[in-house]
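Why do we bother with a discrete structure alphabet at all? Because it lets us treat a fold like text: something you can write down, compare, and reason about line by line. To make this less abstract, here is a complete entry for SDR family NAD(P)-dependent oxidoreductase. Read it the way you would read a sentence in a foreign language you are learning: slowly, and without expecting to understand everything at once.
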Amino acid sequence: MGELTGKVALVTGGGRGIGAAVARRLADAGAAVALTYVQAEDRAREVAERIEAGGGRAAVIRADLTRPQDAAQAVEQTVDELGRLDILVNNAGFLAYGPLAEVSAEELDRVLAVDVRSVFLAAQAAVRHMGDGGRIISIGSCFNGRVPGANFVLQAMAKTALVGLTKGLARELGPRGITATIVDPGPIDTDMNPADGETADFQRSLTALGRYGEADDIAAAVAYLAGPGGRYVTGTALAVDGGYTA
């Protein structure tokens, strides 16, 4: 019996990278897991099939969480297929990089929609089904604690907005026994930010450990916050960044 046996988790953007690692880790801990995707259906189904091959339960849901109807539908489908909802992991994100003068209004709206609006909408829909012991965990960024140079204005703004959102959720939902937290990754080797990418050496140089982390490092932190060990942690962020913000 795992620590999360009997629990149900919804992981947004769960088909690849950090989201896929989180979905697998929560399933290994005993949770049934629903994961959303927008485009990469094949990868999301591969994650679900792996969970099911290990004896777990999984659901795959196509949803654009920036739209209220999709956020509500994803939550409702999770409850319909898996029976309940205890853990929401807001993982879906949009990487933005470039000079301030070149940021278009469309890019601004897209980043805020994916990184902030979708988290709000998913949480709003999820808490209708959560009770005591519910967990809302959002994947933030090391930019919440340190902006290393130019061209990160949009990314830093969007991810820092999660701090205020999470603190507000913690205060409002605390009386119901629901926690709200953030996991702030440093440089993590994923499709979006590969360890052999053109800025990888620079990113490594900013960490105390001098290396990239792995998606499983973030998944382990999420599993801790989702499990019994995280029951008294709320309204705060856990940095898993190799010392990036040290």
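What the structure line is telling us, in plain words: The first strand starts at residue 8 and ends at 11. The chain has one domain: 8-240.
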